[in-house]
Specification:
This protein has 319 residues and is an alpha/beta fold. It is built from 11 helices and 9 strands. It folds into 3 domains: 46 residues; 29 residues, no CATH class; 234 residues, 2-enoyl-CoA Hydratase, Chain A, domain 1 (Alpha-Beta Complex). The protein binds zinc ion (ZN).
C-alpha cells in the first residue's frame, strides 16, 4: 500500500472509475489487466533492449564490452585478454592479406551415409548448422598470402557441429595439403574441434589416417606445417593432423587433449594436476611449442614462416 507503484495504480483506478474513495485495494480484481500491462512493458523491456546485440559480457572479468570493440580486438577481451570463440571467416580475415584468399572446395557438403537418426536426423542437423553459420561444413580451406608468404590455410569453425571432423573436413584438409605439396607451399591449419563426427561413424575416423598420410607426403618434400590449436581441440583431431605440426602453437588457455579431463579422472581414479590440459600446462610439458595471443598471431606466424623457409635455407647455406 505504501509503495509508489501502488499509489500510482490507485490514482489510475480512481481516474477511470471516478470513485471518490481511496479504497482501491479491492478494485485491481476488475481493472488489474488494464493497469498492470503497461507497467511490465515499460520497466522490463527497456532494460533488456539496451545491451542486446551491442554489448557482450566477458565471462572471466565480467566487464561489459562494446561489440564493435570486441570485433576490432579479434574477439579478445581488452580488459583481461580472455579469448572468445571466433568464426573461421573472421579468423582468415585477420590473417591473410586483403583479396588474396582463394577458397578451395567451398561447396563440398556431407552426405548422410549411415542414415543416422538420433534426437534429430543428421541431414536436418547439417541443414540447420549450414543455415546458422553460413558455412557448408566445419572447415574453410584456401590459398592466401600472409605477409609475403603464400600459404595453404585451413581454418576450423567450432560453431558448425562442434567443429567435428567428418568426411568433408578430412577431405578438404587432405586436398589442401596435397595442393600445398604440389605447389611447394607451407601449410597452416587452425584447429578447434570436439573430435570425429559421430554421425558419420567409421568414415569420420578414417579422416585421421587420410589427413596424416597427406601431411607425411608434405613433410617428405621438406615443406613446413604449422598447427595452431585453439580452444577447444580434442579427440580425433588432436590425435591426427593437429598434433603433427613442425611447430605446434596454441592460443592462451586453450583446452587441448584427447579424452576430456572428467573421463581421464574417472578412468585413472587419480587427482589431476592443476591446469591439466590447458595450453600453458602443455607448453611446460613439451607437447606444444609456444603460446601466441590472437592479436599477435599474424606477426608471429610470419616470423615462424620466415624461420622455417628463408631462415632455414640461410642456415643450410652457412653450414
Ligand atoms: Zn575480460
Amino acid at each position: 500500500m505504501s509503495t509508489t507503484s501502488f499509489n500510482k495504480k490507485s490514482i489510475l483506478v480512481q481516474k477511470e472509475n471516478n470513485n471518490g474513495e481511496e479504497n482501491t485495494t479491492v478494485k485491481p480484481n476488475t481493472d488489474a489487466p488494464v493497469i498492470r500491462k503497461p507497467k511490465i512493458v515499460s520497466t522490463g523491456a527497456r532494460k533488456k533492449e539496451i545491451p542486446e546485440g551491442l554489448w557482450t559480457k566477458c565471462p572471466r572479468c565480467s566487464s561489459m564490452i562494446y561489440d564493435s570493440d570486441l570485433d576490432e580486438n579479434l574477439k579478445v577481451c581488452p580488459k583481461c585478454d580472455y579469448h572468445f570463440p571466433i568464426g573461421a571467416r573472421e579468423r582468415i580475415h585477420s590473417l591473410v592479406e586483403t583479396c588474396t584468399f582463394e577458397e578451395i572446395d567451398a561447396d563440398m557438403t556431407s552426405v548422410d551415409i549411415l542414415g543416422f537418426t538420433g534426437v534429430a536426423t543428421y541431414k536436418s542437423k547439417l541443414e540447420s548448422n549450414q543455415k546458422k553459420t553460413g558455412l557448408k561444413d566445419a572447415v574453410v580451406c584456401g590459398i592466401g598470402n600472409i605477409g609475403n608468404f603464400k600459404v595453404a590455410l585451413g581454418v576450423m569453425d567450432f560453431s558448425f557441429l562442434g567443429g567435428s571432423m567428418g568426411s568433408v573436413v578430412g577431405e578438404k584438409l587432405t586436398r589442401l595439403v596435397e595442393i600445398a605439396t604440389d605447389r611447394g607451399l607451407p601449410v597452416i591449419i587452425i584447429s578447434t574441434s570436439g573430435g570425429a563426427r559421430m554421425y558419420e561413424g567409421m568414415f569420420s575416423l578414417m579422416q585421421m589416417v587420410k589427413t596424416s598420410g597427406a601431411l607425411a607426403y608434405h613433410a617428405k618434400q621438406r615443406l613446413p606445417y604449422i598447427s595452431v590449436l585453439t580452444n577447444p581441440t580434442y579427440a580425433g583431431v588432436m590425435a591426427s593432423y593437429a598434433s603433427l605440426g613442425d611447430l605446434i602453437i596454441a592460443e592462451p588457455e586453450a583446452m587441448i587433449g584427447f579424452a576430456g579431463p572428467r573421463v581421464i579422472k574417472d578412468t585413472t581414479q587419480a587427482e589431476l594436476p592443476p591446469g591439466f590440459q590447458t595450453a600453458e600446462f602443455l607448453v611446460e610439458h613439451g607437447l606444444i611449442d609456444a603460446i601466441v595471443r590472437r592479436p599477435d598471431m599474424k606477426e608471429q606466424v610470419m616470423l615462424y614462416l620466415d624461420f622455417l623457409t628463408n631462415g632455414q635455407k640461410q642456415l643450410a647455406s652457412i653450414g
